[in-house]
Amino acid sequence: MADLIPAMEKALIDFSTGKVTQPVRQVIAVDPPGGFYGMMPALTPEGLGQKIVTFYPPNAEKGIPTHMALIILNDPQTGAPLAVMDGRLITEMRTAAVSAVATNALARADASVLAILGSGVQARSHLEAMRIVRKFRDVRVWSPRNADSFAKQFNVRAAASAEEAVRDADVIVVATAATTPVLMGEWLSPGTHINAVGATRPDWRELDDAVLRCARIFVEAREAAMKESGDVIAAGNIFAEIGEVLAGTKAGRESAEEITLFKSVGVAVEDIVAADLVWRNYLASQ
Question: What is the C-alpha separation between 164 and 142, in angstroms, rounded?
Answer without folding.
Answer: 8
